[in-house]
Amino acid sequence: MVDTDRKTDEELVEEAQAAPEGDLRAFEALVGRHQEWVVSNCRYITRAPDEAPDLAQEVLVKAFYGLVGFEGRSKFRTWLGRIKLNHCLNFKRKEWGATFVSLDDPEEPFDRMVSVEPNPERDLETSLARERIRAVLDSMVDTLRIPLILRDHDGFSYQEIADHLGIGLSAVKMRIKRAREEFRARFESPEDEFRTAHEKSPGGSDEWTTKESTA
């Protein structure tokens, strides 16, 4: 087999689908390429860092068994992202109960909202910025945080987010607008002010309801 690092996801998918039983080399190459992103994204969506590795592992297992039915009409990463999203939202449903309705670089998340450019001379500063991003996301309610992640981290369209979350398109747009504004405000606020706001944040108590059509 040619060096898997030089192959595209599409080529690896074809090899994995055609591989004899027990030959996992192509799929393992896909896992190595995307696992860190899946773990990171599971952590952001669920706000459960201790559970994220296990959730990611379950996502990859589902992908392995579902690969036989993957027809390549979307990119592998997009397909994997949908499996990840559904799995994480199922985790949230169990956490919240029946009131919860049906609804990519892990090292540099939300680069479209906040400029955190890696630089060998600024490793500490970059690391602190990433920690700040995680803390800000953790301080946001789920009804704002999850649509924001799906749009700016995963690249889902507004309509796809609306379909996944079971809310109206206008509600999705308004929530993402509010989430971006809140993220920027909290990220840029002084440390003491942010800490106070974080302590007062309602966290995950904000629930999804089928009645909502606006933000």
Care to give the gist of this entry?
By secondary structure, the protein is mainly alpha-helical. 62% of the residues lie in helices and 0% in strands.
List the defining traits of the structure above.
single chain, 215 residues, mainly alpha, 9 helices, globular, disordered C terminus
Mean pLDDT: 77
**Quaternary structure state of the chains depicted:** single chain
Backbone structural class: mainly alpha
Helix-strand string: HHHHHHHHH
Portion of residues in beta strands equals under 5%
Terminal Cα span:
52 Å
How would you characterize the overall build of this protein?
The chain is an all-alpha fold and 215 residues long. Helices cover 62% and strands 0% of the residues. It contains nine helices and no strands. The protein has helices at residues 9-18, 25-46, 52-66, 76-96, 123-139, 142-152, 158-165, 169-188, 191-200.
What is this structure's SSE topology?
Layout: H1 9-18, H2 25-46, H3 52-66, H4 76-96, H5 123-139, H6 142-152, H7 158-165, H8 169-188, H9 191-200
Helix pairs in contact: 1-2, 2-3, 2-4, 2-6, 3-4, 5-9, 6-8, 7-8
